[in-house]
Amino acid sequence: MIGQHLLVLLTLFLTSVIRPEAHEFHMSRTTVNYDTEERAIQISTSIFIDDLELSLKELGHDSLLICTRKEKENAEHYIHTYLKENLVIQADGKDLAFTFLGKEQSDDLSAVWCYLEAYDVGSFNTLSITNTILTAQFEDQKNITMVQVDKERIAHLLFTVDNTAETVEK
Fold this sequence. Notes:
Layout: H1 2-18, E1 27-35, E2 40-48, H2 49-58, H3 75-86, E3 87-91, E4 94-95, E5 99-105, E6 111-118, E7 126-131, E8 142-149, E9 152-159, E10 165-169
Parallel strand pairs: 1-8
Antiparallel strand pairs: 1-2, 2-6, 3-4, 3-7, 5-6, 7-10, 8-9
């Protein structure tokens, strides 16, 4: 009997460590940085894995098992495609094409950090951002986006279901 209780407690502990509790809010964090020396726009975005999995599942990409040892081979392709459609950035009205550099799991195991970069971006005056990450799935979705030039903040934006696009001056 004690052995069974110990096994149940151990199982509960391990599943809470391995699989974080579901969260009660829906949020992503994105940093958009223009590096003038490299002439590149660098993006890092953090999205809750379970929410991203749900979004991709609704698009027909089921059981990707993002950031696990059993992750599907094409998971990064689907994540990149999703981000291209839901995080659109224009410099002076010109669409920028981003290369998917990779991803990594957050320290608390609940989110995935995705890294993208647009190369050979010349000088510009305005940056227009449309951020619809997870807004089709969650009415309370908040997408916090910091815009930087050479790692100095020039704008802090909040995107929601009702506010998905903003333009900032450099």
